[in-house]
Amino acid sequence: MTTLALLPDPATPLSRESAAQAFADILDARTGEQAVADFLIALAERGETSIEIAEAARALRARMIPIAAPPGAIDVCGTGGDGQHTLNVSTAVSLVVAACGVPVAKHGNRAASSKAGAADTLEMLGLDMERAGAQAEATLRDLGICFLFAANHHPAMMRITPIRRRIGRRTIFNLMGPLANPAHVTCQLIGIARPDYAPLYAEALAQLGSAAAAVVAGEEGLDEISGAGPTRVVTVGDVRLPARIVPEDAGVARHPTIAIRGGDPAYNAHALRALLRGERGAYRDAVLLNAAAALVLAGKADALRAGATLAAEAIDGGGANDLLDRWIAWT
What we know:
Blueprint: H1 16-27, H2 33-46, H3 50-62, E1 74-78, H4 89-99, E2 104-108, H5 118-125, H6 129-134, H7 136-142, E3 145-149, H8 150-153, H9 157-167, E4 187-191, H10 198-207, E5 212-218, E6 231-237, E7 244-245, H11 265-276, H12 282-297, H13 304-316, H14 319-330
Helix pairs in contact: 1-3, 2-9, 3-10, 4-12, 4-14, 5-11, 12-13
């Protein structure tokens, strides 16, 4: 009879060594499911530390299926779970930033808390998810963009998914997506729906070796830079972004968050295509704002206004729309 590994008592913060061993045991199924559920709930109720977040990410990274990426690749990704059901801002930003010449290794998944995740919307636009995954290295190298469907790269999460579903609440694994990009990017714009967690998350990123990253949280609990008001920003590395961003910093207008409320995959796909074809409004301004920050992080722009100008040129000149067409044709 196999003896199951015992998880440490999460009542007090774990050391780096004990956290590393605990998450290795969890991901390698050396623990019972109920023990895992109890451990994750207790961590969430106590409040995870940056060491625990970083070690959970290291354990997941060690078990993922990686791809090679060109120098300077970036990811624009949120943790999700903000409950705002917005249009696919980070997906649109990824296309715009890639059209500006910055390689984008977009990590994403299907919808969890919204009606249309990045994978759902891209698939509706015509991207073949299976082929896009198989050709991710090639499209990142030759087109400057790829989509890394989380389910294809994190087989260890198959054991965790039903446990998380049964728990039915946020746990440390809700924070893992942006921290376990299969392309090993060290430049990231990460949205988190909990402003109070932004400094903690940035500390974890620093422990994981990020070179240039920004953790952003709209003050209304949005997991991206908010087009409605102030956003908290915590940076890692030599990054020229302020600690607080408002839309006017990038020269765009404010819009209430409801103005970018999304729908099902067909609705979101139509909105994204209209945006790339030059449609003005709240969605465009949210994309310009977030793309501006990503371009500053990537060293393509020295300030938010300059980044927003580059992003607008990528849309209005047809570059971002053409990139999407070429990507779809590739798959």
